[in-house]
Amino acid sequence: MSSFPSGRTLPAAAVVATLVSLAACGGGSSSPAPISASPPVTPTPPGDPLLPQTELTLATEHSSIASADAASQPNWPAWNHAGGDAIDGIGCARNENYHVHALLSIYRNGVRLALPSSVGRNNSCNYEIHTHDGTGVLHIETDVPKTFTLGQFFALWGQRLSAATIAGLPGPAKYYVIENEKIAPVTGDPAAIPLAGHKEIVVVVGTPPAVLPRYDWAASGL
């Protein structure tokens, strides 16, 4: 190491040269380890409810919703309700000025279950939400546009609905919605799921189906 005579001031260039020499010789404190740059973070696009991935997939080919009737297994007794009093805000249909269709598909261990064919229909009343067959198509027929929920339909049906159980099936139950051929899981209260035209609500209890039908609403005449 170089020594400097006392009482003398080194020029700036000499100071720099000396420091470089010390660093090359390992003098002074040890050099810090190099810091590797972190990879850039790609932000998640906000506001898209269809981003979460699910365990369900749609078939590659389309099928008619009418085919769901034969493919579904009967499970519940016929709906039995007399009279036409309003049930949880659902009254008798006055006319069909507003007529849309939603779809409810309930699977137990991969098997689709058929809804009763006349939920919401009796000799006194065709309720504003009702079924015609075992497909699970929910006919919403009102005098003016109205928005109903899945919980209201279950109140009309007289069956329980929650994350723990659905219509007497042992839970837990998982809920999904399919719109525009995209599947999204439901994480909130299933009773609050709104019913809407060409919207499918899928409920899975136990083992999920290997693949879900990709229904063609237009070809089904709905």
UniProtKB/TrEMBL annotation:
Keyword terms: Signal
Segments of this protein annotated with the region Disordered: 30-53
Pro residues: bias regions: 40-49
Chain intervals with Low complexity compositional bias: 30-39
Signal peptide start and end residues: 1-23
Name of protein: DUF3455 domain-containing protein
Species annotation: Massilia forsythiae
